[in-house]
Every structure is written in C-alpha cells, then in structure tokens.
Task: inverse folding
C-alpha cells in the first residue's frame, strides 16, 4: 500500500499519527556538513549543481528525521533567469541588479524558458524524488511576486522598503505591470516543479506584511489568487508564508492557499480560532526560541503543540528561517518533542 507522508496528510487536514515537522531554511549554515561543503563551493554553484543541491537538501532529513524536505535553492534564482543580475555578497547578502526597473521598465524581464534556464532546479527535484524515502514529502517553492519585486527594486534586502513603496505610490500602473510579469513567471516555475515531482509548493511572500491591508488588496491579492488558482492543488497542496501575515489574516484566508504559514507574532491558538478548523496552519515558533535552555524549550514546544494540534491540519515549523548559530541539540530536542506529542483521537497505525 502506498504511504501518504504525514506532512501531506496534515496539508489536507487528514488524521495523522504524529504531528509533522520541518524547519524553514533547514538546509543551511547551522549544519556543520553544510558549512563543510560551502568551504569548497560558492552558494550559487551549490544551487545550480543538482548533485550538490540534492546532497544538501537531504542533510537535515537524514540528521533529524524531518517529515518534509525543501528543495535547496533560492527565491532569487528566478529573477536571474528572467534577466536580472544576481550575486551573493558574504557581508551584504544578496545583490540584484535590473536595468531601468526603477523607471518602471519591465520589458527587460522575460518569462524564463524552464528547460533552458532552470533545468538544474527541475533536475534536482527529479533526483530528490528518487532519493527520498516514501514517507518524506518533497516541497518545491518560489518567492511570491511582491517579495521578488522588492528585491528587484531595492537591489537587496531593505529595512524601510522606501524604493518599493515610493515606486508603488508614484507609479501604480508600472507596479501592476511588474506584478503581472512576475506572476506569470512564478506560475510557470511552480507548475514545472510540480511536473518534475514536487509534492507540495510553498510560496514565500516574506515582505508582504509591510503593506497596509488596502494596499495588499490592491497590489498583491489578485496576483496571488491568480497564481494559486492556476496550480493543481489536488496534486500538490500549497502553503503560503509571509512575515507579519497576522495583520493580514482575513486577506490571507482568501488567497486560495491550502495551508497558511504564520510567524511568531500571532498566538497560534488565536490564529487557529480565527481561521477555523478547515484551514491548515504551519508554524510558528520564534527561531530564536531555539536558544532557550533545554527545559524551557521543551515547555515552549509543548505549549505550541497544544494550541496548534487542537484541530487537524497542523504542521510544526518556525515562524521564519532557522538562525545560522542555532545549537544542533535544540533541533534534536524540538523534533523529538514534536514527534512524541500524543495526537488526540489517533488510532494505531493510522499513518498508512
Ligand atoms: O532550506 C531551505 O529552506 C531551502 C533553501 C532556501 C534558501 N533560501 C537557501 C539559502 C529557501 C527556501 C530560501 C528562500 C529565501 N531566500 C527567501 C524567503 C524566505 C525567507 O527567509 O524570508 C528569501 C527572502 C531569500 C533571499 C536570501 N537568500 C537572503 C536574504 C539571503 C541572505 C541571508 C542569509 O540567510 O544568508 C539568502 C542566502 C541563502 N539562501 C542561504 C541559504 C542556505 C545562505 C547562503 C550561504 O551559505 O551563505
């Protein structure tokens, strides 16, 4: 009999034997085996070499027994394939250059040819599906158009998003043009990942929470609804993640995403109460809570589980990416704590 991974069951609000867990940025610098490979290979080379991307994707699954693997890549590679210049500066983080973008010129950006420009991603997805055990789900992902737009316009990560917001307020038609172009690329990219074997899709709209609800409804919501409406949710459930999604919870509910990823600023019990039992939720431990002493962390994790797993459709995760200095022992303890939590109403052997 075919085993449906418990992560995928939770995405569909089906009963699970244990609460599924994975961590955003679970393949990364907090892992010694990742750092070792990084002394030999630059980050982008690792993303673009399927054998390396596969190896790194598997590292946290093998070490901790995560319930899902997320493809090792980066949201900014899509922008590079569309015609922007991308490099990662060890000090300043990602740098993106796109000629004329601040003047509203989007014609320099093209919807990429997946087989030519992003073949390495699709190849890694295919190899991962071969390599992963049946009970571990493979998550593909993309940045959402708004978050990608901020990197194009700001040229990197920003504190105030001054350039993005002034662009949007002064030149709304061009901003819509840019969102339209990015949405097309995101949809094609996600469909290609599903076709290659991704079993779930996460859309990272990390910076959408900087917008007012009115601006979100005008400049972001319609594009997200279009993308999510165009994906085959029956084949691959969708997860939407945004920092600060709690200020936009009603809008988030109407996006059409199967699962909502939350950051730690909202109480998990309150969020589940407001979203209702039919909306699966993923989150939302503060990544820095992993720096607590062991006993306190254990208690924090149990409190979160009592709130999150009070209804079906709960996936344990952090509220943002794991910090590079996180102690490995905390991650072992967290996964152990989640997997040993008794799930209400579970009959033995329910997971298969
Ligand atoms: O393990 C995983 O989660 C899968 C791989 C993954 C990476 N980036 C690898 C990465 C994923 C899903 C991302 C998403 C991503 N990338 C987002 C959205 C989620 C979020 O964190 O908000 C964003 C905004 C980016 C852009 C990005 N990439 C930034 C701002 C940085 C620099 C900050 C940092 O953490 O270094 C990156 C670099 C990056 N992406 C690294 C990794 C493992 C570190 C690269 C290194 O080894 O130096």
Result:
């Amino acid at each position: 009999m075919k085993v449906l991974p418990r992560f995928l069951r939770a995405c569909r609000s089906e009963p699970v034997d244990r609460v599924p867990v994975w961590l955003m940025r679970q393949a990364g610098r907090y892992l010694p085996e990742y750092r070792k490979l990084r002394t030999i290979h630059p980050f982008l080379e690792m993303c673009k070499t399927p054998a390396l991307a596969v190896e790194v994707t598997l590292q946290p699954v093998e070490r901790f027994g995560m319930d899902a693997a997320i493809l090792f890549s980066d949201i900014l590679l899509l922008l590079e394939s569309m015609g922007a210049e991308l490099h990662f500066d060890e000090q300043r983080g990602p740098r993106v250059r796109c000629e004329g973008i601040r003047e509203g010129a989007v014609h320099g950006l093209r919807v990429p040819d997946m087989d030519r420009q992003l073949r390495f991603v699709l190849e890694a997805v295919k190899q991962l599906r071969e390599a992963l055990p049946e009970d571990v789900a493979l998550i593909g992902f993309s940045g959402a158009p708004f978050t990608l737009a901020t990197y194009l316009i700001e040229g990197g990560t920003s504190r105030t998003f001054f350039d993005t917001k002034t662009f949007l307020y002064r030149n709304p038609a061009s901003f819509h043009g840019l969102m339209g172009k990015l949405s097309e690329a995101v949809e094609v990219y996600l469909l290609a990942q599903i076709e290659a074997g991704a079993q779930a899709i996460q859309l990272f709209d990390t910076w959408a929470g900087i917008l007012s609800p009115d601006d979100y409804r005008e400049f972001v919501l319609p594009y997200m609804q279009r993308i999510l409406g165009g994906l085959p949710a029956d084949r691959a459930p969708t997860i939407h993640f945004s920092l600060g999604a709690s200020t936009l919870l009603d809008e988030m509910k109407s996006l059409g995403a199967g699962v909502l990823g939350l950051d730690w600023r909202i109480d998990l019990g309150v969020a589940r109460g407001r979203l209702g039992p039919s909306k699966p939720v993923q989150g939302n431990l503060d990544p820095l809570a992993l720096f607590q002493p062991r006993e306190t962390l254990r208690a924090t994790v149990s409190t979160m589980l009592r709130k999150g797993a009070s209804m079906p459709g709960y996936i344990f995760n952090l509220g943002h990416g794991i910090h590079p200095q996180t102690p490995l022992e905390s991650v072992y303890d967290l996964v152990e704590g989640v997997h040993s939590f008794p799930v209400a109403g579970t009959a033995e052997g329910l997971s298969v």
Summary: The chain has one domain: 6-339. The chain has 16 helices and nine strands. The pocket of coproporphyrinogen III is lined by residues 24-29, 38, 43, 70, 72-76, 93-94, 141, 157, 204, 206, 321 (CB under 6 Å).
